[in-house]
Amino acid sequence: MKPTLFVLAAGMGSRYGGLKQLDGLGPNGETIMDYSIYDAIQAGFGKIVFVIRQSFEKEFQEIVVDKFKNLVETALVFQDTSKVPDGCTYRPDREKPWGTNHAVLMGKDVIKEPFAVINADDFYGQESFAILADFLRSVEGKKNEYCMIGYRVGNTLSESGAVSRGVCVVDENNNLQNVVERTHIEEKTGTIIYLDEKGEEYPLEQNTPVSMNMWGFTPDYFEYSESYFKEFLVENGQQLKSEFYIPLAVNNLIVEGKASCKVLDTPSKWFGVTYAEDRPQVVLKINDLIKKGIYPEKLFK
After folding, report:
1. Which terminus of the chain has fewer Cβ atoms in its 10 Å neighbourhood, N or C?
2. Has residue 137 been placed in a domain?
3. Residue 298, domain member (yes or no)
4. What pLDDT digit, counting tens, does each position of 149-172 carry?
5. CA 155, CA 160: separation in Å to the nearest integer?
6. Strand pairing partners for 117?
7. Residue 40 in contact with residue 126, Cβ under 8 Å?
């Protein structure tokens, strides 16, 4: 059975403006998501599942999904604040969904095979999809063996300034022990540094693995996630902005000894559009990859 790619596309991109997931950046209007799906198909993924907000279903179907209908199996699922387990309560005036791991839970009824999770608006690179597909094929029929693609922090920096990254703590076998969020990472005079809570600088080695939200799971992850989400809502359900993130669930599983998560090194360079000012650089990078022959000028004919 081929693995499935689960694309998190429910975010509205408020800082960038509009549906940044649908912004055409390639020479024929291709989105960053299109390049991810092209890479996934090339790597051997057999199904693409998108989680979106139902309010833009029609636009998303026409602009994104329809172009793949003759290439790969597709499915749409919807993330909504009201989609919580039976018996759970939350503030009725809450409008924002519950974060990335809540989005993952929306796929539990349509995904029955090993699956990858990615952001819609991040460019991950061909090597990363190949590495991830190989891992997912190796865990078919197994449980409690997950992975995360670990990007080298030096390959994820922004030309526009400091970035936030989840710095991975791993053991001697590259099993994830923890993800520590660092909110200010940048290169200064040839050295990568991060600032701690007090504003003090500390160096980061160029190849330090960081999370860019590219994960690999087997279907048993859904059951764990739902259980943790119930606990999360008991403690945080009455807050307006609390979010249930993937690293929170994964960290819990590791601490409790229920699952392992292998951090897989990738040589790929990450890039993405966080603010409108980032767009021209992304367009140039995509055009450069096309000139090098890594991608065809027109992805889907």
Report:
1. C
2. yes
3. no
4. 999 999 999 877 888 999 999 999
5. 14
6. 6, 215
7. no
